[in-house]
Amino acid sequence: MAKKTTQAKAARGKARQAQTTEYGEPRTTVYRFSFGPWNIHEGADPFGPPVRDPISFSRKLPLYKELGFEGVQFHDDDAVPDINSRSPQQVLRQAQAVRKMLDDAGLVAEFVAPRLWEDPRTIDGGFTNNDPDNRQYAIDRALQTIDIAAELGTNKVVVWLAREGTYIRESKNARQAHEWLLEAINRMLAHNPNVHILIEPKPNEPMDSAYIPTIGHAISLAYLSDDPTRVGGLIETAHAKLAGLDPSDEMAFALFHKKLWSVHLNDQNGLKFDEDKTFGAANLREAFNQVRVLEEAGYGQNGEMVGLDVKAMRTQKEENRLAHLANSKRIFEIMVEKVRTFDRRAEAEMIADRDYEALERLVIEHLLGTL
Ligand code: 3MF
Ligand code: MG
């Protein structure tokens, strides 16, 4: 009995710690939210055309504040359309004009990502393309993205390795491909001493098999790079689920390495096409656990944003076509409340007592609001 009490006491102490910072203050992270202009979507998919009217970038910007968001995520060509047909000076001038639009709208750029999956030169991949000229194109474009990011006022560059992988395993030498990926990262690090590279892993789509399918792969590349302190990751809920992994554990792994620098929260209903569903729409408990892991690690206290990579359903009519963004943010905020009000004392006692059935019920009833 005495042993049990001591155990429970120790567990309670630990639980108290989790709710407070390392200095013992209560966690009060004020979360800042971001999304990309592609998240206001016309509904086109591989089998059908757009079903909603396009909205220009300049008309999208004021919507951010209206929806309660302050961070804008960019692809290089979201900021600089027709990027390949402009001179380097024209590219920078256009980026400066976008910076002014952001400033005027009271918004900030969170990151810029090179779009390495649409150009004919990237059909067979960018950094891992078998053709050296095409690999050079991918590197040049990634370096230009770093310059654009600097003009937009952010040092974060996201690399989603969309076509770095294969449809036919024998078409590439995977060991060599990883060498090239590392080389590309090192070239980016050398280009600007401030740049931070966030690798966004995804196991498949558009490729059959993608290189760097999980955050573990990304972080192992980071440590091999010339400056591991400037290479980290962005985790997307759906991408972790497509890899058959628990998104909150993936996030915890990156947080443990101090390498979770952005997230793409959304949801995914099993192993299908990348659905980019509203956060929490498919699995509330997984949403709760992602927020719990982020909150406990103090995510957001070093300027990290809560990014949402969500799309309205194709079946959503024009009206309310932005609701998926507002709803995802709202569900995140409800989950923060759920995390902060979770009965940690009961949790600690149940853990100490190894009464996991009781813990299961506690979690579910807490989420249902029936306690
Ligand atoms: C693909 C994605 C991408 C990336 C984006 C920024 C279009 O599954 O999630 O969204 O997030 O390119 O890296
Ligand atoms: Mg994403």
Folded structure, characterized:
The chain is α/β, with parallel strands linked by helices and 371 residues long. The protein folds into 2 domains: 1-28 and 341-371, no CATH class; 31-324, TIM Barrel, CATH 3.20.20. It is built from 13 helices and 10 strands. It has helices at residues 2-19, 57-66, 76-79, 88-105, 132-152, 174-191, 215-224, 237-242, 247-256, 284-296, 323-341, 344-352, 356-368; strands at 33-35, 71-75, 108-113, 156-160, 165-166, 196-200, 209-210, 231-236, 260-264, 306-307. It has a 4-stranded parallel β-sheet with strand order 3-2-1-10. The radius of gyration is 22 Å and the shape is globular. It starts with a helix and ends with a helix. Bound molecules: 3-O-methylfructose in linear form and magnesium ion.
Q: Give the SSE order as H and E letters.
A: HEHEHHEHEEHEEHEHHEHEHHH
The 3D shape can be described as globular
User: What's the architecture of the largest domain, going by CATH?
Assistant: Alpha-Beta Barrel
The CATH superfamily of the largest domain appears as: Divalent-metal-dependent TIM barrel enzymes
- Low-confidence parts, pLDDT < 50 over ≥5 residues? none
Strand content: 5-15%
Small-molecule components bound: 3-O-methylfructose in linear form, magnesium ion
State the total count of DSSP E strands: 10
The helix content, as a percent range, equals 40-55%
- How far apart are the first and last residues' alpha carbons, in Å? 28 Å
Looking at the structure, the CATH topology of the largest domain is TIM Barrel
- Biggest beta-sheet profile: 4 strands, parallel
Please tally the helical runs, counting DSSP H or I stretches of 4 or more residues.
13
